Amino acid sequence: MEIVKKEIEMLLGEEELKGAALLVLANKQDIQGALSEGEIAERLELAKKCKERYPPSLRFKDIDA
């Protein structure tokens, strides 16, 4: 997950991708021991990245709420 986190950070820093949406797919959720959507979001620090990149109206809603 650390490699994925660093790759996302690198991509979000690219000028050409400024304003682009980020979609994270969490497939294989049926496999025992798979991380939940919340765990993935937490490990990749997606909420922090969203706050830094997007205005409040475009941020994702807290999936654990």
Word description of this protein:
- With 65 residues, the protein is mainly alpha-helical.
- Helices cover 40% and strands 0% of the residues.
- It has helices at residues 2-12, 37-43, 46-53.
- The two termini are 24 Å apart.
What radius of gyration results from the CA coordinates?
A: 13 Å
- Report strand %: under 5%
> What shape does the CA trace take?
globular
The number of helices is: 3
Structural class, by secondary structure, is mainly alpha
Which stretches of 5+ consecutive residues score pLDDT under 50?
none
How many β-strand runs? Answer: 0
Largest sheet: none
Produce the secondary structure layout.
Elements: H1 2-12, H2 37-43, H3 46-53
Descriptive terms for the model:
single chain; 65 residues; mainly alpha; 3 helices
Outline of the structure:
This protein has 65 residues and is mainly alpha-helical.
